[in-house]
Amino acid sequence: MIVFPESVSGQDKVRDDWRKSKAKHFSYRSTVIPIWTIIQNIQVKIQDEELQPFAVTEASAYHSDMAKNVTQNQLVGEIGETAAKLQFLKIGFQFDPRSRLEAGIDAIVEVMDHGKPLAKMIAVQVKTTAEGRYPGEDDNGFHYLLKKEDLAYWRGSNLPIIIVLHRQSDGAFFWKEIPRGEEFQDRRLNFNKSDDVLDADAVDRLGALTVPKAGFGYFVPPLGGGEEALVNILPVK
């Protein structure tokens, strides 16, 4: 208990001294534990007040047209590349997909002889369709029209290039070599349903694509079985 003097001036002086002392004391404590004081106040506020639900406004509302979408064509293309990789692995070849920056070659295939890599590479472009018939398709074959920009890009390749067509509905795989060189201008490829199937019977033909067209040639083992042979043909002038 604080007793103030009877005189007015004395009471005022005591009150002023007492107030200054309390103010100084409060200032000291506030500089020491201001964070703890804030935390206590927040806890009390949370306990005493009911939290209000988040108000959904027009600006914050979710709209389906704001979401990112993966197109059906993207899904079909991704499924086709995965299926092609599995198909090449089944026939004993390595299949290495390229990065997202590819401009017309989806993967590089390495020819292998019963699990032995031969460092013979083939560039592969995979074209996938979910269903339907190819242009001009009948029981014997069909044709496929290449894009001009793809053909122009492939002409400068130092690797043999094949196009692989995959149809999801029946699981069909067909392949064809892309002719290179400026002399090749026809964008239409004709596929034979018996000869151009991508399966184990195609390994020798695929391996033969890696043989240089110029020079004396070199030995290529029969990848699909059969007899070994040495190529010793000499050019005749």
Written description of the protein model:
It is built from five helices and seven strands. The chain folds into two domains: 8-48; 72-208, Trna Endonuclease, Chain: A, domain 1 (3-Layer(aba) Sandwich), CATH 3.40.1350. The chain has a five-stranded mixed beta sheet with strand order 1-2-3-5-6. Mean pLDDT is 79; it is low at 26-30. 30% of the residues lie in helices and 20% in strands. It has helices at residues 8-32, 34-48, 72-90, 148-154, 203-208, and strands at residues 94-97, 107-113, 116-129, 141-145, 161-167, 172-177, 188-192. It has 237 residues and is an alpha+beta fold.
Features:
237 residues, alpha+beta, Trna Endonuclease, Chain: A, domain 1, 2 domains, 5-stranded mixed sheet, two-stranded antiparallel ribbon, 5 helices, 7 strands, 30% helix
Give the count of structural domains.
2
Number of helices: 5
From the helix content, strand content and strand pairing, which structural class follows? alpha+beta
H/E topology pattern: HHHEEEEHEEEH
Shape, principal axes of CA atoms: elongated
| Averaged pLDDT | 79
Q: What is the name of the CATH architecture of the largest domain?
A: 3-Layer(aba) Sandwich
Instruction: Note the gap between the termini.
Output: 128 Å
Which helices and strands appear, and what pairs or packs with what?
Layout: H1 8-32, H2 34-48, H3 72-90, E1 94-97, E2 107-113, E3 116-129, E4 141-145, H4 148-154, E5 161-167, E6 172-177, E7 188-192, H5 203-208
Parallel strand pairs: 3-5
Antiparallel strand pairs: 1-2, 2-3, 4-7, 5-6
